[in-house]
Write a structure and sequence with these properties.
Subcellular location (chain B): Cytoplasm; Nucleus, Nucleolus
Strand content of chain A: 35-45%
Shape of chain B: flat
Helix content of chain B: 10-25%
Strand content of chain B: 25-35%
Keywords (chain B): Cytoplasm, Exosome, Nucleus, RNA-binding, rRNA processing
Main location (chain B): cytoplasm
Number of strands of chain B: 16
Distance between the termini of chain A: 43 Å
Order of helices and strands of chain A: EEEEEEEEEEEEEEEE
Oligomer: heterodimer
Structural class of chain B: alpha+beta
Order of helices and strands of chain B: EEEEEEEEEEEEEEHHEEHH
Number of helices of chain A: 0
Family (chain B): Belongs to the RRP40 family.
Helix content of chain A: under 10%
Strand order of the largest sheet of chain A: 8-9-10-12-11
Number of domains of chain B: 3
Largest interface: A-B, 11 and 10 residues
Organism (chain B): Erythranthe guttata (Yellow monkey flower)
Number of helices of chain B: 4
CATH architecture of the largest domain in chain B: 2-Layer Sandwich
Radius of gyration of chain A: 22 Å
Chain lengths: 199, 240
């Protein structure tokens, strides 16, 4: 077990870490508004990080680092890569594979709703012309969603299908426009919501 | 794969073809646009068969393979007979003998609003039209035609439903009227609804007539048109 930061105390969930007047809560800590106290929410080692020099807030940040290293977890605002598993009339399900550059350690499911596929004409979106099962898509996490899945969005130019296989030949298709991809061997064009990659 | 020497398209039309047969050689047919229907695939310069069946050709340039199966593959525009499996808030789940259950939106009826949603019990037989049929997704149905009118779609009451192959369904729906139905119709009054998914519904005034019509249709599937007429007339004589 590595020790991080300066303090080496082992804290348990619910333990008082300090007052909000003295400390800012970081990962693994939270504030209870009723009594302005910072409590730990994880079991692990407490560490204090000094405040950044330019900030007006002079309080150090207290963090609790769990003893198990967890894989990355999707957070609202993160860009994720996901593989589409099911396409339905009003939404598509996808398994989140990577959060940013790191691959996840456990299974996370995301849903792309019809209104989150693109930014324009959202009620005329055909899910079948945007995604197919097996496509790899780059999406933005909108929210934690419900108990079953995160809510994802591809409503930006750089979001959407990054890689897809053609239905007939099974070869990786080449993007032609933001709505079409072409199979290199048969020449068949298929419709997808394609992500704009590169400059 | 070697191309057969001198592949002449006329030699394969209306013949039984099997997957792997090379039926057209595009290098011999220059400056033509050919439309390929189901069961055919382009492999470089030759057209090869993907499904076993009869190769058909329609002028000026359409080729396709017709086959008969007990399974139904949903395709847009087909009129099928479905059985209600479950009723949910937005859709009815309907079994149409395909790989997945189909959805029938609760509002897909003529003059359908949230206030007059039809109440179909599990097991209700419906005559419906396939609106959307994408691979991997559940098909979507409708009880209206493209204009929004009811047009015969909806529940089928009384009568008797039996299953058939998709080829027999297409024969029963062909025009001019297939010999079985024509011969039967001259002597007996009955009502029939044919689903392209291999389901046929028959209704008549008495059960013995329904049984006769159903048996006749099932027995004459593999007979030629002339034989069909003879067989139907024999069966009708037994009735009288």
């Amino acid at each position: 077990m590595k020790e991080r930061g300066e303090a080496e105390d082992f804290v348990t969930p619910g333990e008082v870490l300090g007052k909000t007047s003295e400390l800012k809560p970081g990962n693994g800590a939270y504030v209870s508004p009723q009594d302005n106290t910072v409590y730990a929410s994880l079991a692990g080692i407490r560490s204090l990080t000094p405040p950044p020099p330019e900030s007006a807030d002079l309080r150090p940040t207290v963090e609790v680092k769990g003893h198990k290293a967890h894989g990355p977890v999707p957070e609202p605002g993160a860009i994720v890569l996901a593989r589409v598993t099911k396409v339905m009339a009003k939404m598509a399900s996808a398994d989140i594979v990577c959060v940013g550059p790191k691959s996840v350690r456990e299974k996370f499911t995301g849903i792309i709703r019809q209104q989150d596929v693109r930014a324009t004409e959202i009620d005329k979106v055909e899910m079948h012309s945007s995604f197919r099962p097996g496509d790899i898509v780059k999406a933005l996490v909108l929210s934690l969603g419900d108990a079953r899945a995160y809510y994802l969005s591809t409503a930006k130019n750089e979001l959407g299908v990054v890689s897809a296989e053609s239905a007939a030949a099974g070869e990786t298709m080449v993007p032609i426009s933001w709505t079409e991809m072409q199979c290199p061997s048969t020449g068949q064009i298929e419709q997808r919501k394609v992500a704009k990659v590169g400059a | 794969m070697e191309a057969k020497p001198s592949v002449a398209p006329s030699s394969f039309i209306d013949q039984q073809v099997f997957p792997g047969d090379l039926v057209l050689d595009l290098s011999k047919m220059t400056n033509q646009t050919i439309k390929l229907g189901g069961g055919l695939c382009q492999d470089g310069d030759v057209i090869s068969v993907m499904k076993a069946g009869k190769l058909r050709f329609s002028k000026p340039n359409k080729y396709w393979v017709e086959s008969s199966h007990k399974r139904y593959v949903p395709s847009v525009g087909d009129n099928v007979l479905g059985i209600v499996v479950e009723a949910r808030a937005d859709n009815f789940f309907v079994d149409i003998k395909g790989p997945a259950l189909a959805f029938l939106p609760v509002l897909a009826f003529e003059g359908g609003t949230r206030r007059n949603i039809p109440k179909f019990e599990t097991g209700t037989l419906l005559y419906v039209r396939v609106v959307k049929a994408n691979t991997g997704m559940n098909p979507e149905l409708s009880c209206t035609d493209a204009m929004g009118k009811a047009a015969e779609y909806g529940p089928l009451k009384d009568g008797f439903m039996f299953e058939s192959s998709t080829g027999l369904s297409r024969t029963l729906l062909s025009s001019p009227t297939c010999p079985v139905l024509e011969t039967l119709g001259k002597k007996i009054a009955f009502e029939i609804a044919v689903g392209l998914n291999g389901r046929v519904w028959v209704n008549a005034t008495s059960p013995s007539i329904i049984v006769l019509v159903a048996n006749t249709i099932m027995q004459t599937e593999s007979l030629s048109p002339a034989q069909q007429k003879i067989r139907v007339e024999n069966l009708l004589q037994k009735l009288q």
